[in-house]
Design a protein that fits this description.
Blueprint (H helix, E strand, L loop, with lengths): L10 E8 L5 E8 L5 E7 L6 E3 L5 E3 L2 H11 L7 H18 L3 E3 H15 L1 H11 L5 H15 L13 H10 L1
Parallel strand pairs: 4-6
Antiparallel strand pairs: 1-2, 2-3, 4-5
Helix pairs in contact: 1-2, 1-4, 3-4, 4-6
Bound molecules: zinc ion.
Zinc ion (ZN) binds next to loops.
Length: 175
């Protein structure tokens, strides 16, 4: 770290402590050449993550939007707020660690869909039917058939209150 007084590159740390807000480390240094003291801060580089929408618009990553969409899909389903939040937090961390500044909204959507597919079929169908355009309705139907075959006779879909996926699509169309 260059000394601000004499530009020497030699300095020693004489004190090191966590700053009040705990997001940075404050270091007192002493220049080995001119003996001047100065302070440096070390903090995590915060990368602002941008979401690229289908129309090519860039907007800040907003975890509350993802959570809201999932809550809607999980309404009256046995999925806790905690499950949703920990999934979104984990995903956000993963995106940060990747170090890229942009993520396609479609990637986020697909990720949520596959998570819901794992945990609850009704929530999955609700989310996927809203998220994926009806242009791929045939593809979507095939997926549903596969899902129903896979899960047939076991899991939460076995209970009496299970809603048939096609009913849900019908509901959406009428709105
Ligand atoms: Zn100096």
């Amino acid at each position: 770290m260059k000394c601000p007084y004499c530009s020497s590159l030699e300095s020693k740390v004489i004190d090191s402590r966590l700053a009040k807000e705990e997001t940075s480390i404050r270091r007192r240094r002493e220049c080995l050449d001119c003996k001047s003291r100065f302070t440096t801060y070390e903090r995590v580089e915060e990368v602002e993550l941008l979401v690229v929408t289908k129309g090519g618009v860039r907007e800040p990553f907003d975890r509350s939007k993802i959570i809201a969409g999932m809550i809607k899909a999980c309404e009256k389903r046995p999925i806790s707020m905690e499950d949703i939040e920990s999934f979104v937090s984990g995903y956000e961390r993963e995106l940060q660690e990747r170090g890229e500044r942009e993520v396609d909204s479609s990637e986020i959507g697909e990720r949520v869909i596959s998570k819901l597919y794992e945990i609850d079929e009704v929530a999955y169908v609700r989310f996927a039917s809203v998220y994926r355009s009806f242009k791929d309705v045939n593809q979507f139907m095939n997926e549903l058939k596969e899902l129903l075959r896979e899960k047939g006779g076991k899991g939460p879909g076995d209970s009496k209150d299970a809603v048939h996926p096609l009913t849900l699509i019908q509901e959406k169309k009428e709105k």
